[in-house]
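[job 4471] stage=fold_predict status=RUNNING
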Amino acid sequence: MPGVVLLHGANGAGKTNLLEALHVGTQGFSPRARRDVQMIRFGADASRITLAGTRGSNAFETDTLLTRGESRTVKLNGDRLDSVERLRHELTTLVFTPDRLAVVKGAPATRRAYLDRVVGRLLPARANVANEYASSVGQRNAALRRIRHGHSTRDALAPWTERVVLLGNELVVARTETADVLDAPFTELAGSFGLADASLAYDGTAPTTAELEGRLELDIERGITGAGPHLHDLRIEAGGRDLRVYGSQGEQRVAVLSLVLAEAELLRQRLGMSPLVLLDDVLSELDGSRRLALAEVITRTAQTVVTATAAETLPSEPAVSLSVTPGRVG
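[job 4471] inference complete, writing C-alpha cells
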C-alpha cells in the first residue's frame, strides 16, 4: 500500500533510533553503529527488535537479539539464520542518513563499497563477485610478498594473476552496468531537487594479464596488486563538476538522496515491489520547492519512513503521522 510514515519530534527524542531499529530488523546490521554493544541501552544486558510486515503478498516476521559479549541472533519467520545475508536477500531496505554523505565526499573505497552493495541488490546473480575478487587480490598480494622474501617463485603467482583478471573483468562489467542503469533515474531525480546535469559514471577499466605482468616488479617490491577494480572509483558529477571536490554540502546531500531514491525506483521496476525506504533528517536542509518535489517522489513508494522535527515540515499529508517523545511513540 503506498504511503509515507512521518515520525516527528524534538531532537534527541529517538526518531533516528527507530529508523535504526527498522534497518537492523530488516537487514541485520546498523547503518551507523559499528558494534552491537552500541545498540544496547546503557545498563541493559541485551536489546531485541521484533518486526512484522508483508513483502508483496507474503507476510514475514523477524526477531533480532543483541547481547553483550555474544553473537547476535537473527530469526526470520521463526527460523534462526546462519547468515544475515539471507535476511537481506528476502527483505530490502534503503536508508538515507546525514552520515551517508560520505558516499559523495568520502574516499573512493566508500563509493566502491556503496556500488558493490547496489550491484548485489540490482544484480543478485553477481552479488558475490566483489568478495570473490577481493579474496583473490588478497591471495595474489600474499604470493607477491612470498616472492619478495624469497619463499616462492613467480610461476606460483600466475594462477592468482589469472584469477584476479577473470574476476576483475566480471566485477567491472557488473559495476559499469549498475552505474549505467542508475544514471538516468539519478539525473532525473537530482534535477527535480535542483541539482542540474547530475550524472554517474564508473571510472575504471578491466584489468588484463599484460597490465599486471607489465608492473610485476613494482608489485613485488610493494607487496600489493597495483591495478584493478579495487582501485577504481564512481564519478558523481553535476555540470561536469566532481561533487566530491566542488560540490556544496547541500549538493552532496541532494546527490545521496537521489541515489537512494533512484535505486528504489529501479528495484520497483525489476522486482515488482518496492523496498522500505528510510529517510532520516532529510527535510531540514531542503527549501520549499525541493520538499514538494521530495513529497511527490516518496508517495510513489510502497512505504517510506521520514523523520522531521515538526509535522508541518512535510508539505503533503502522510499516510501515518506519529509523534515521538523519549520512550514513547504515538
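[job 4471] summary: The two ends are 21 Å apart (CA to CA).
[job 4471] exit 0
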